[in-house]
Amino acid sequence: MTANIFYFKNVAFVVVQVYQMFYDGFSGQSLFDSLLYTLYNLTFTFLPPLIFGMTEQHLSANDLLRRPYLYRLMSQSSNLRCWYILLWVIDGCWHGSVVYFVCYYVLCGGMLYSDATFFQSGVSYSAVDFELFGNAIFIYLVVTCIMHNIVLSRHLNLILVVGLFLTGVVNLAIMFFYQSIATPSSRIYMNYVYLGSCPVFWLCLPLVTVLALLPDILWRISSDAWWDYQIALSGVKRMREKRSRKAWRQFVGRRNSSD
Asked: Which sequence ranges are marked TM in the entry (predicted)?
């Protein structure tokens, strides 16, 4: 499962840049600051999948103790099958598409409406430019990837919650420190302060999160229903096997006694 999460988040990260290539004439213009390319997998989205992989319990310990035959369902490595990995890739494409086009049409107007504005002291009009557009996409990607781990988790524990909290706090501190020491000519200079003062940015955050995670929520609901059905079905099969063995033993016992 952890490997699939890494596929998902990296596909989403690449998809937004592929879309941008069509709008900048394949000029190779970078959507993000160079540091963000390094920190995306190094600090922003590394810890939550790692903790998820170490602490996640697909089935509770009590269920496994009461029904040890459920290990048969868990030992088939279905998470590494091609069709399942393809679903994660498609999910990453969906996340990247939602993040990019919501930012494009809502923050930047989609070349049909005026750009969103933010409040800046001493300036009468401040619009979202290309640098703010790229940083907004990056923030939404990180938030949806972290929320994606929460939606998938069937075993929310203290380690996972602390890991998510530390991921947010540490990376927020890193980016605010980086933008504060950047020169005014840098593309990331005070960008997060400007985004924080943009009302449309905050309105887009729940919109992006809900739209991006909607397939994951539906998948989680269907997956839980499927596992409940499989657990019940396995119990029925187990009872039938016991009855069959018991009937066979009784039959053999009667044959031996008659002989």
From this structure: 7-23, 35-52, 82-112, 132-151, 158-181, 193-214
What is the radius of gyration, based on Cα positions, of the chain?
25
10 Å Cβ neighbour count for 22? Answer: 8
To the nearest 10°, report the CA torsion of 234, 78, 40, 106: -70
127 backbone dihedrals φ, ψ, rounded to 5°: -105, 155
User: What is the token pair recorded at 224?
Assistant: 């839980």
Contacts of 115 (CB under 8 A, 6+ apart): 107, 108, 109, 127, 128, 129
Bridge partners, 117 (sequence order): 127
As given in the structure block, the two tokens for residue 116 are 């969103």
188, 207, 212 from 172: Cα distances, Å: 14, 21, 22
pLDDT in tens, the chain (259 residues): 778 888 899 999 999 999 988 888 888 788 888 888 888 988 888 888 888 888 877 777 777 777 776 766 666 666 777 888 899 999 999 999 999 999 888 888 766 666 677 666 655 556 677 788 888 999 999 999 989 988 888 777 888 888 888 888 888 888 888 888 888 777 788 888 888 888 888 888 999 999 999 999 998 888 888 777 777 776 655 555 656 666 556 655 666 665 5
